[in-house]
Amino acid sequence: MKRSVIQIANSTQLISLPRKWTLQFGIKKGDELEIEEKGNKLEIRTEKVPALSEVTLDISGLDRTSTMLYIRSAYRRGFDSIKIKFSKPSTPHYRIKEDVSYISIINTEVNRLVGLEVIKQTENYCELKDFSGDYGKDFESLMRKVFLQINDAMSDLLKGLTNKDIELLKTIEEKHDAITKFISYCLRLLNKKSNYEISKSHTLYYTLASLDVVTDAIKYAAREIIKYNKRFKKESIALCELIQKFILIYYNLFYSFELKKMNDLIRIRNEILIKTETVAKNIPTRELLIINDLKQITEILKDLGEARIEMEYKQE
Questions:
Q1: In the chain, which stretches have pLDDT less than 70?
Q2: Where are the alpha helices (DSSP H) in the chain?
Q3: Which DSSP symbol is given to 123?
């Protein structure tokens, strides 16, 4: 898109803004825009966000997990009103091999999303509305809380499998839901109003979405350990301790960035890979499968380490 420069008097030069963009963001006469020089480019930004007032979701035929993810995605995208319709009252919950009602699924997911409430409910329809008031929240403190809660969940997992503490392992399900709630809210804030430049905002979004996967890995491991119901071998416990250490190193890399901490991340990752291969023949197969599932955390955080490095680059 090209725009002609308009000369006003002897010094002022003007350029028009694209009409489609001004309508999308509600730009009016007298509004202030942020303009940043970047070499031969000018970046023009507004603090306004395009309105996402409502969306209608048809969840007919979706299973329990797909339904929850569909609702969660609309919330994270930033819609303030979510209308949900469905043709049948229930749908399969594949993990427990039972049918569950859509209404119970919707209410379970609503409880995991900050500020969202059910305001209307009928036999085959439900309407949700956000009452959170997004713009006054502190994104930085919320994101740090996500990191701290993941550290706590992994610590409890390690204690649970070390001491065969089934009750402690059962609490990880609730911890997972709490972490997911904050992740969803942070992603919603990034979509509705981000004070970061685009590249940093994208990296933060990718980081949070990946931490969601890390949280799932811890939850699924806890479930499998409970079903396994045996005391872990010392070699397996040592590997889990390394994975917990890996999570803490990434947390420190993210908040106190030093390039040499990336070396520590890669060193511990390789130590985990080598030790897993070394002890594979000495631990039960079921135990090894659980360790391998947890080991995926190291690959996710390694990729996030690379993304964290990118956040350090500044425009020259």
A1: 9-11, 21, 23-25, 36, 38-39, 45-52, 133-137, 314-316
A2: 19-24, 64-77, 102-110, 139-163, 166-192, 198-228, 234-255, 260-279, 285-310
A3: T
Structural domain contains residue 215: yes
Q: Are residues 173 and 64 in the same domain?
A: no
How far is residue 56's CA from residue 59's CA, in Å, rounded to a whole number? 10
Cβ atoms of 76 and 113 closer than 8 Å? no
- Close Cβ partners of 275 (under 8 Å, ≥ 6 residues apart): 235, 238, 239, 242
| Contact call for residues 255 and 274 (beta carbons, < 8 A) | no
Beta bridge partners of 245: none
Tell me the C-alpha distance between 178 and 110, whole Å: 12
* 136 three-class SS: helix
CA–CA gap between residue 96 and residue 274 (Å, rounded) = 36
Placement of tokens 């930085």 in the chain: 140
DSSP single-letter state for residue 232? P
Backbone torsions φ then ψ of 155, nearest 5 degrees: -65, -45
Q: Tens digits of per-residue pLDDT, 274-284?
A: 999 999 989 99
We report the CATH number of the domain holding residue 242 as: 1.20.58.220
Indicate the DSSP class of residue 16.
P
Give the list of residues 6+ apart from residue 31 with CB closer than 8 angstroms, or none: 46, 48
Domain assignment present for residue 315? The answer is no
Regarding whether 78 and 179 lie in a shared domain, the answer is no
- 316 lies in a domain? no
pLDDT of residue 253: 95
Q: Convert the pLDDT of each residue in 33-77 to its tens digit.
A: 777 676 677 777 666 555 568 999 999 999 999 999 999 999 999
